[in-house]
Here is the input.
Amino acid sequence: MPLLSILFYLFATVLVVSAAMVVTIKNPVKAALFLVLSFFSAACIWMTLEAEFLSIALVLVYVGAVMVLFLFVVMMLDIDIERMREGFARNMPVGALVAGISPIYRLCFCIRSCRSHSARSNYRCHSVDDAAASRYPLPVSFRASQSQ
Here is the structure.
């Protein structure tokens, strides 16, 4: 296995673990520091893929500016974590319901769109983006013309 592949998988593992720590850790300052680690490992992945400009831009913009501002705000605010967690158990069933329904809704939307298009023509829908492009052609074509 080449060295670049080993480095890619190493940085990808660090990225996934640090991103999981951002979401699960209790202290907001430590979460922000894990987010900095996530940004650095993503920048290293960009470097292994020979996208040096994107890597440097990621470090300069996100770590250099956004994270410093975020850390400053988090440290200046006196966040009462215990008060924020009071309603967590009360709101957990609603959050679980929304998290369970969302992928099912997206899947049903794609299946319904694919069926309606296959009944009209030989067009086959492969993703939600294709369904959105066929159902709402003007906003999607406007967005596509802006990205070029």
